[in-house]
Fold:
Amino acid sequence: MSSATSTASLPRGLAVLTTFPDVLFIPEIIFGGLVWILVASSRVPSPILQGWVMFVSVFCFVLSTTLLCLYICGVHGGSGAWVTLVFAFLATLMYVIHKVCSLLRWKSS
Structure:
């Protein structure tokens, strides 16, 4: 079984701000911060919905900012394998959370 590998290295330092799609970090952070502010200042009939939207917006904002800082600091060492590992871990974590919540809902019904 063969795996697809990329020969291009990831940018490091301020070169991150000049390459596509990495340049999209800036609008992500700006719009993510605006969403965070707007959600926090709005009133909705169901607070649980506002809490969920707030969690997602803050999580994405923090993740984008952290990833940008890691790229600028050059933590990845020029290879993209660690990014695959981070996103594989997140996908697995989401599966586990979904299954646990589904199990709890099933048991309570």
Notes: The chain has a mean pLDDT of 75.
